[in-house]
């Protein structure tokens, strides 16, 4: 179980923390060479982090082989996702300017509006599914690969890793998902940006509001697992007071409310999930 947890935690770190803006830009590039370069660099980061985690308590050969397989599959999923996204965007833009709209276009247009969110969620599900599937094959075929757990308290280690995985996924992964949703709703904090058509790029940069959201979800998860649900209202109130004057602006109010409510919901769900996992 610790092996699987380390693999999931390393995925969180590689996807949400150790992925620089430069790599994101390369991966999203329509230039195939740049896209390949960005995805190769990202897959190498995935491999390195996972290998470093596993080599601590597992045989070198097992850690190397598992990390390499996961890195390769991670690259395949990501490059497919990036190329598919570019293809969908290209086809959609072409159909927009087509005078005669097909029945399929009319049906799929609402779905396209949420395509980035769907791709993001599907991408994460595929990564976790691959991590789990490959882990089951290693457990089945390589019995006794653990070097030694004599110096590790298993229950304590499992609990700590559960905390880290859920905190990282909700706090940092939540930032990506929220920004994707906000970008697809065409929400902007200020009217001049909204009217100019400048859309937030969900993966390109981390603003002060992103860090506020990360700390907000961290606090909410902590409050939920301690049963202090009433204190969540205090966070919402404190943020509203700090942004009181800006809330008079219609565009900012929409941007703020959607982001805050979504962030709060993720934090509560993360806390409930953590309580459930820890009760097992």
Strands, helices and their partners?
Blueprint: H1 2-16, H2 21-28, H3 32-55, H4 60-96, H5 103-113, H6 115-141, H7 154-184, H8 191-196, H9 208-225, H10 232-242, H11 250-279
Helix pairs in contact: 1-3, 1-6, 1-7, 2-3, 3-4, 4-6, 6-7, 7-9, 7-11, 9-11
Number of strands: 0
| Residue windows where pLDDT falls under 50 for at least 5 positions | 140-145, 192-206
Distance between the termini: 14 Å
Shape: flat
SSE pattern: HHHHHHHHHHH
The number of helical runs is 11
As a whole number of angstroms, the C-alpha radius of gyration is 21 Å
Features:
280 residues, mainly alpha, 11 helices, 0% strand, flat
Protein model, in words:
The structure is a single chain. The chain is built from eleven helices and no strands. The chain is an all-alpha fold and 280 residues long. The radius of gyration is 21 Å and the shape is flat. The two termini are 14 Å apart.
């Amino acid at each position: 179980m610790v092996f699987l947890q380390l693999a999931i935690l390393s995925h969180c770190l590689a996807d949400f923390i150790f992925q620089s803006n430069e790599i994101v830009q390369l991966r999203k590039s329509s230039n195939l060479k740049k896209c390949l370069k960005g995805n190769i660099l990202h897959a190498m980061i995935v491999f390195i982090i996972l290998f470093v985690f596993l080599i601590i308590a597992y045989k070198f050969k097992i850690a190397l082989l598992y990390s390499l397989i996961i890195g390769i599959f991670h690259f395949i999923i990501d490059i497919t996702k990036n190329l598919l996204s570019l293809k969908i965007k290209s086809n959609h833009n072409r159909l927009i300017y087509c005078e005669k709209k097909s029945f399929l276009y009319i049906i799929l247009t609402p779905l396209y509006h949420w395509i980035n969110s769907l791709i993001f969620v599907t991408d994460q599900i595929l990564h976790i599914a691959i991590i789990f599937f490959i882990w089951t094959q290693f457990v089945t075929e390589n019995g006794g690969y653990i070097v030694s757990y004599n110096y590790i308290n298993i229950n304590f280690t499992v609990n700590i890793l559960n905390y880290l995985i859920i905190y990282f996924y909700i706090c940092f992964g939540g930032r990506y998902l929220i920004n994707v949703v906000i970008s697809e709703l065409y929400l902007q904090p200020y009217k001049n940006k909204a009217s100019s058509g400048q859309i937030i790029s969900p993966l390109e940069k981390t603003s002060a509001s992103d860090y506020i959201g990360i700390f907000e979800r961290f606090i909410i998860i902590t409050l939920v697992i301690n049963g202090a649900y009433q204190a969540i209202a205090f966070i919402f109130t404190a943020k509203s007071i700090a942004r009181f004057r800006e809330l008079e602006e219609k565009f900012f109010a929409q941007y703020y409310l959607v982001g805050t409510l979504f962030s709060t919901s993720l934090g509560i769900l993360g806390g409930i999930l953590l309580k459930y996992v820890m009760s097992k």
